[in-house]
Design brief:
Blueprint: H1 3-25, E1 38-44, E2 51-57, H2 66-69, H3 83-98, H4 107-123, E3 130-140, E4 160-167, E5 171-181
Antiparallel strand pairs: 1-2, 3-5, 4-5
Helix pairs in contact: 3-4
Length: 183
């Protein structure tokens, strides 16, 4: 191999490495067609040395009271969900609705109505950041056995539930209301 050829190869390798290094460190600004006021801001990824671009408006002024606009995460609720008040509401609604009802095929529709009515009534108690899940099952009271179970990820400090069981001459109703705290 001649010295001239070897020198040319070394120059090309240096140029190639130089281009690679330059492409990693060079940042470009572009303006989008939709919003000419936005610019692309580089953000470095965690696991590699490449850059990702994020759109952000130019000349945007941040408000002085910035803390009020940020979302604060609270792992513990300010006001704990009252199961006693929710149980009173469930009892009142179910007793009024199922007082004169006898078991029939329309009980499926009634259970959906009860579930929606219970959720809207309990939401009026204004517990912030609680997600409500309501389960109502209606069955016939004739030599029947029912087993209900549920599983969920649960935080004993913030999440809770309440239940109410109703019986009349022809039917029974099991009402469960889960209050799950959203951080």
């Amino acid at each position: 191999m001649s010295i001239c050829y070897r020198n040319n190869m070394q120059k090309e390798e240096k140029q190639w490495k130089g281009l690679q290094e330059k492409s990693k460190s060079t940042l470009r600004r572009k303006t989008s067609k939709e919003n000419p006021q936005s610019s692309l801001i580089p953000i470095q990824r965690r696991r590699s040395s490449t850059w990702t671009m994020k759109k952000e408006p130019r000349d945007q002024k941040l408000p002085s009271d910035r803390d009020e606009q940020l979302i604060h995460y609270q792992t513990i609720p300010e006001r704990r969900f009252s199961t006693d008040r929710a149980r009173e509401i469930i009892k009142r609604i179910v007793d009024e609705r199922l007082e004169t009802v006898e078991y029939s095929g329309t009980c499926a529709v009634i259970s959906k109505e009860l579930s929606d009515c219970i959720k809207t009534a309990v939401k009026k108690l204004l517990y912030e950041r609680y997600k409500l899940v309501c389960f109502v099952a209606i069955g016939q009271l004739k030599d029947s056995v029912v087993n209900c179970s549920s599983r969920a990820v649960w935080s004993p400090t913030a999440d809770t539930f309440t239940e109410y069981i109703y019986k009349n001459r022809s039917l029974f109703a099991v009402c469960l209301l889960f209050a799950v705290y959203k951080e």
